[in-house]
Amino acid sequence: MYLEGLHLKNFRNYADLDVKFNQGVNVLLGENAQGKTNLLEAIYVLALTRSHRTANDRDLIGWQANEALVAGRVHKTNTVTPLELTFSKKGKKAKVNHLEQARLSAYVGNLNVILFAPEDLELVKGSPSVRRHFIDQEFGQMSPKYLYNAGQYRSILRQRNNYLRQLQRKQAKDLVYLGVLSDQLAAFGAEIVAARLNFLDQLAVWAQQVHKVISQEREELAFEYVNQIKAMREQSVDALYKAYQEQFERQQAKEIEQGTTLIGPHRDDLHFMVNGKNVQTFGSQGQQRTTALSVKLAEIDLMKAITGEYPVLLLDDVLSELDDARQTHLLRSIQDKVQTFLTTTSLSGIARKLINDPTIFNIASGHLSQDESVSSSDGSDSQNGDDGRETQQE
């Protein structure tokens, strides 16, 4: 899978951009606050219909504009798919093959991306919500069913929490309705946990292999899924459903007293274990970095195994956060394997040696110019002009 190019209209600091990309490594080179991360964000948005940097879609619309457009063509083994997203104050519209999609869940999955940024260390060091978000976001790209179930779960959870607050304040008394909501939440919760366990089981296999190589066989990485019902990989969806039902019955009085749902996958966590110890708590910074890198690189192979296509890799200023050994492993892992977009203020000596035939775009104030002295010519020329140097429409 690769993204042929990108068309932006009033997206962040890009007023009007048309650019074609290399199928290999695309380096976005420039000083800070010039638009490198904005371009990476646009690719992420094109894939997932939302940003990783803001929860407010209006932030994506350029200054003094009423509407923003993000569009591109995705190449897979046997298909070429045009994708288009429009953001306005009224909301967003998503099109696949020029046809508007009634549900965003039907759109997501046409372009799969993996984002790796310095803040991804929070995957290891951060709160449980960070790890839950990681699981939901990545697996949602690979499984439309999981994406649907997760959306339904969130909707019912909001309803149940609202009703628990009404019961807490004595504004409602009907425990039968609470039981209905509990039953629905248990059903979707069981589906989500079963899928998570399956996903993590597969991801762990790839991550263990990567981690062993990076740690030079000195460390063993394992995953431990933590939740209230002690869910295990061998349990069926029906068994998980019954376990949630039992827990809701036991915790009903406490949940009404606190006015919130205390049980469910929205409270679960993922522990990373290195040589049997929780790396979040006991690991060194080097072990935490290696764990985060191992998990991210493992996703590449897992997505290929599940979807049949390699994802697009987005590396946002990651090289500056990695030592030489980890840089080397990262760049060797992606070379000639996945289309990669890498933002950086400067290419280090190691990166220059290890990246074969990159296309380098210099970025300044939302304008792109291709550095042809080091770029390949395999389909990376701009759509604007014959010389391929200027990719920003004025």
From TrEMBL:
CDD domains: ABC_RecF. Residues 2-344 form the RecF/RecN/SMC N-terminal domain. Keywords: ATP-binding, Cytoplasm, DNA damage, DNA repair, DNA replication, DNA-binding, Nucleotide-binding, SOS response. One of its GO terms (molecular function) is ATP binding. Pfam families: SMC_N. NCBIfam families: recf (TIGR00611). This is DNA replication and repair protein RecF. It comes from Furfurilactobacillus rossiae DSM 15814. The lineage of its organism: Bacteria, Bacillati, Bacillota, Bacilli, Lactobacillales.
